[in-house]
Amino acid sequence: MAVSATLRTPEVVVKPGGAARCHVVVRNNSAVVDQFAFSVRGTVADWTQVKPAVANLLPQQEVSVELTFLPPRTHEVPAGEHPFALQVVSREDPAGSVVQEGIVTVEPFEQVEAAVVPVTSTGRMSGKHTVALDNLGNHPFHVEVSCVDDDALLSFRVSPAHPELAPGATTFVRVRARPHKYFWKGEDKHLPFTIRVLVPDSPAIEIDAAYDQRALVPQRFFWLISILFGVLMLLVIVVTMILRQRPATIAGPAPVRTTSATPSPSSATTTTATTSSAPASARPPVSQAAPVVTRSTTAPVTSAFTIDTQAFPNVGGGPQTFSYVVPDGPRKRVMSVRLRNPEADSGTLRILHGTVAIGVVDLAVVNRDGNAPVVFVPDSPPLLAPGERVSLAVSCTNQRDPCTPSGEFTVALVR
Predict the structure, then answer these.
(1) Given its phi and psi angles, is residue 282 left (phi above 0), alpha (psi -120 to 50 degrees) or beta?
(2) Helix or strand run (H / E) with residue 207
(3) Which of 54, 75, 225, 250 suits a disulfide with 168, CB 3.0-4.6 Å?
(4) H/E element, 222
């Protein structure tokens, strides 16, 4: 061969952000002066320097080529072994070029950035926070997330408590703070606490957060009660005045019930004669029957049904569908859908009439105000016939737990 190459250090270990070197001895085995070009192949080529890049060698002359490995401190260069190859190309004899292979091992490092949203939550029974953990290191590892309350006024639920962080990815952890004691009325209470993230071989990350606890009965409730009481009193006065202006009765005298007895011919003649001979002024008044008033009860014009779901995350094949089949009877028109998301799931909820989408709702919007439901009113209320399907299609993006939203449909009967 026209050239030979020898790698003195076949395995090199380097820290991210640091530098490591190795040398390759290249020898011209030909009988003529030749020029050789050196280049690195493999994933390490972007952060490897070659000195010199070109060398002119006399016959039987050697040169030492220095390779300097400079991996950046970023998640884009994963920890572990990275094979490389130094290609030596001869100008005079390209077919006699050689390749010398080696391995560079990049050491792992951990770097995590954490943030909480919202910093201060508000609620009557509990407060919800989301911790975003960004793994800026070059390998996956587990961290521990916990909460510390110096005044011991809160209890916490962290899910998941030991998440695994993938390099270059963001992992979300849910934190729910619950007070040990509740109060019926009064001003809000500000309860601070600390979210602590324990990273292996690194100092703990501490994030300040707080929960503003509200009274169980809002202050505007008392104002509402006062207004309703005033309206009720005014309504009683108006109804009393209207009833005073109405007549005592609107029905005529009750009809007279007579017995059907067959009179004898003599008594009938006597009665007829007596009746005929009696003066008109002495005749008893003829009573008229009172009008019969009938009342009919009206059947309810609205009804409701509920669709519960349980959609599991990381399931292929699109959203998971949960349906309700319209029973036999009159047709129904959907007026509104009361959506609930009690577990604060994340994902997308589609409301379908058959295969037609009535609306699309983000689950994060449904659970924005705690456990309060969100009422969805379709722009064009669909008409449901017996045998048709109404469905909830759930696309769950939770990390592990299934999504369990539900929808209560209010429908009006169409006759």
Answers:
(1) alpha
(2) strand 205-213
(3) 75
(4) helix 219-244
Instruction: Supply the DSSP symbol for 151.
Output: T
> Using CA atoms, how far apart are residues 82 and 40, in angstroms rounded to an integer?
12
pTM for the full predicted model: 0.50
Alpha carbons 82 and 398: distance in angstroms, whole number: 34
Whether the CB-CB separation of 262 and 297 falls below 8 Å is answered with: no
Residue 280 has pLDDT above 60, yes or no: no
With beta carbons less than 8 A apart as the criterion, state whether 138 and 77 touch: yes
Contact call for residues 26 and 62 (beta carbons, < 8 A): yes
3-state secondary structure of 236: helix
Which spans in 259-303 are helix H? 265-277
User: How many Cβ atoms sit within 10 Å of the Cβ of residue 338?
Assistant: 15
H helices of 245-357, in order, are: 265-277
pLDDT digits (tens, 9 = 90+) for 356-408: 999 999 988 887 665 678 899 998 899 999 999 999 999 998 888 899 999 99
d(CA 16, CA 13): 10
Q: How many CB atoms lie within 10 A of CB 196?
A: 15
Reduced to 3 states (helix: H, G, I; strand: E, B; else coil), residue 271 is helix
Contact 85, 100 (CB under 8 A): yes
| Residue 366 DSSP SS3 | helix
Is residue 28 within 8 A of residue 5, CB to CB? The reply is: no
Q: Could you tell me the two tokens for 65?
A: 């080529």
Contact between residue 413 and residue 302 where contact means Cβ atoms under 8 Å apart: yes
Name every residue whose Cβ is closer than 8 Å to that of residue 265 and which is 6 or more positions away in sequence.
Answer: none
Show Cβ contacts of residue 44 under 8 Å, excluding neighbours closer than 6 positions.
Answer: 69, 71, 82, 84, 104
Chain-centroid distance of CA 16 in Å reads 38
User: What are the residues whose beta carbons fall under 8 Å from the beta carbon of 378, sequence distance 6 or more?
Assistant: 334, 336, 337, 351, 358, 359
Q: How many whole angstroms separate alpha carbon 281 and alpha carbon 146?
A: 104
